[in-house]
């Protein structure tokens, strides 16, 4: 069984901290969205780079891709098609933005629960050393790679290389 690749949207795929630039970062295109809850005013802008879709599709031979985003299933409507991704499963967060143990990000415990003992890599711009320590302590010994991404830049080539190398290393240990 392949490890999971849990993918956040805002930060890794949508470098939202670069939205205030007059010109998007190289390779990114501004898209206007209107997800549930965004019903009035201007549409929500997101920056997306189709190269991310290519890289994620290539990682699909090593991983089962899963949305780990507050967009939940709406990532399949607003994000995935713009990146050329197929419909992906998603984590249906029991509670969003709630309290979290030991200074961790609110998603961390749910990510571990979702993985249910499967090895996983997780890309998110909110990951800290507290999350890594918590996963090590409470993850039941499962192999996990928590990869922080800069929300001004998004996923870079080095991130995709690290994700591929980590998955390949799991195969070597099997």
* Class derived from helix and strand content: alpha/beta
Q: What's the helix-strand series? A: EEEHEHHHEHEH
End-to-end distance, in Å?
Answer: 11 Å
Give the oligomeric state: single chain
- What is the strand content? 15-25%
State the strand order across the main sheet. 4-1-5-6
Question: What does it look like?
Answer:
- The protein is α/β, with parallel strands linked by helices and 174 residues long.
- It is built from six helices and six strands.
- The chain has helices at 50-59, 75-78, 80-83, 108-115, 129-138, 157-173; strands at 4-7, 29-33, 44-48, 64-67, 120-124, 144-148.
- It has a four-stranded parallel sheet with strand order 4-1-5-6, with helices on both faces.
- Helix 5 links the parallel strand 5 (120-124) and strand 6 (144-148).
Feature tags:
174 residues, alpha/beta, four-stranded parallel sheet, 6 helices, 30% helix
Q: How is this structure best summarized?
A:
The chain has helices at 50-59, 75-78, 80-83, 108-115, 129-138, 157-173, and strands at residues 4-7, 29-33, 44-48, 64-67, 120-124, 144-148. It is of the alpha/beta class.
Layout: helices, strands, pairs:
Layout: E1 4-7, E2 29-33, E3 44-48, H1 50-59, E4 64-67, H2 75-78, H3 80-83, H4 108-115, E5 120-124, H5 129-138, E6 144-148, H6 157-173
Parallel strand pairs: 1-4, 1-5, 5-6
Antiparallel strand pairs: 2-3
């Amino acid at each position: 069984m392949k490890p999971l690749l849990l993918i956040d949207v805002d930060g890794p795929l949508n470098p939202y901290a670069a939205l205030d630039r007059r010109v998007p970062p190289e390779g990114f295109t501004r898209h206007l969205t209107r997800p549930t809850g965004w019903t009035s005013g201007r549409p929500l802008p997101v920056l997306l780079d189709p190269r991310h879709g290519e890289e994620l599709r290539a990682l699909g031979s090593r991983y089962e891709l899963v949305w780990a985003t507050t967009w939940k299933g709406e990532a399949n409507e607003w994000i995935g098609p713009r990146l050329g991704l197929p419909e992906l499963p998603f984590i249906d967060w029991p509670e969003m933005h709630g309290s979290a143990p030991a200074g961790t990000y609110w998603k961390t415990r749910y990510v571990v629960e979702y993985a249910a003992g499967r090895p996983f890599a997780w890309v998110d711009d909110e990951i800290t050393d507290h999350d890594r320590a918590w996963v090590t302590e409470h993850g039941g010994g499962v192999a996990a790679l928590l990869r922080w991404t800069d929300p001004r830049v998004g996923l870079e080539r080095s991130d995709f290389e690290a994700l591929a190398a980590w998955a390949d290393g799991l195969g070597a240990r099997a």
